[in-house]
Specification:
This protein is of the alpha/beta class. It has helices at residues 29-36, 52-58, 61-72, 89-99, 124-132, 185-199, 247-269, and strands spanning 2-5, 13-19, 40-44, 77-87, 109-112, 139-140, 146-147, 172-177, 205-210, 227-231, 238-242. It is built from 7 helices and 11 strands. It has a 7-stranded mixed beta sheet with strand order 1-3-2-4-5-8-9, with helices on both faces. The protein has a two-stranded antiparallel sheet with strand order 6-7. It is globular.
């Protein structure tokens, strides 16, 4: 399922494919907010609330490429000015689309609290299967809240287990919280930067790293959620997950990063000089 948020007026307008994380379902409010700033946004559901195991086995790169092209070909969208916006698992998808796809060319990427490890290739279910091989690394805190970040640590040296970010040919804004307890986003950001330096495309990378900030870096003035109930994407089992972060620095990160995101998008999708 997908939902468009379009702008009043003839257009064409820049477009953004909005990809949320592993919680699944169709999350709309960030797309609506992006539309209020002049971007035709498509909120894409790719982890479904029902029949998840069966559907995830059928969803891979082609599904996301098709969604990108649907947005790109919309009559109110400027086809050469379409970007990707990913949070958490959505970042993994966005990086794969920009680094591995031979059929789409996003104008820019915004990636929040994500990873380049375990790239989506054949299907989502193959990624979940790979993660399950590391379940022995799962930890809990003193309140029995799940800490998942170690599932991807140490960062693999095998290039087949990572997105080839050296292939990215568009500007990338990478945002991480230094107290992310869900994904090893800070460590992944360092490795992404090193890979891009080695490939000679690190001039495309802008990295924002926020101390005291957890995994769920959302739109400004959203409440800080340090831990919460969570339903596992494939099994639909309910657990309590530790996201991390402290309220004051996390709130600052949400406000500051959103301001910088809007400037980044305006520069690269509207092609305006901004201060």
């Amino acid at each position: 399922m997908r939902i468009y948020f379009l702008i009043v007026g003839p257009g064409p307008f820049p477009g953004i494919l909005d990809l949320w994380g592993g919680g699944g379902g169709l999350v709309e409010y960030r797309s609506a907010l992006l539309a209020s700033h002049g971007y035709a946004s498509l909120a894409l559901e790719y982890l479904f609330q029902k029949n998840t195991s069966e559907k995830s086995a059928a969803i891979g790169e082609q599904y996301f490429e098709a969604a990108f092209n649907i947005l790109k070909n919309h009559p109110k969208v400027a086809s050469e000015r379409v970007g990707l916006f990913g949070l958490s698992f959505g970042t993994s998808v966005a990086l794969v689309m920009a680094g591995n796809s031979t059929t789409i060319s996003p104008k820019c990427l915004v990636c929040v609290s994500g990873s380049h490890v375990f790239p989506v290739k054949e299907s989502l279910s193959s990624v979940f299967a790979e993660m399950k091989t590391n379940l022995n690394k799962l930890k809990v805190d003193e309140n029995n809240h799940l800490i998942w970040r170690n599932l991807m640590l140490p960062i693999p040296t095998d290039p087949d287990k990572k997105v080839n970010v050296g292939n990215i040919r568009c500007p990338l804004l990478l945002i991480v919280g230094e107290d992310d307890q869900n994904w090893p986003a800070p460590e992944c950001a360092v490795d992404i930067e090193n890979m891009m330096k080695k490939a000679g495309n690190d001039h495309l990378l802008t990295k924002l790293s926020y101390p005291g900030t957890g995994h769920l870096i959302e739109t400004p003035y959203s409440p800080h959620t340090r831990f919460s109930n969570f339903m596992l994407a494939d099994s639909r089992e309910k657990v309590i997950v530790l996201w991390g972060g402290e309220t004051k620095p996390h709130a600052f990160a949400q406000e500051d990063s959103w301001r910088r995101i809007l400037k980044f998008l305006e520069r690269h999708l509207y092609q305006r000089s901004v201060l």
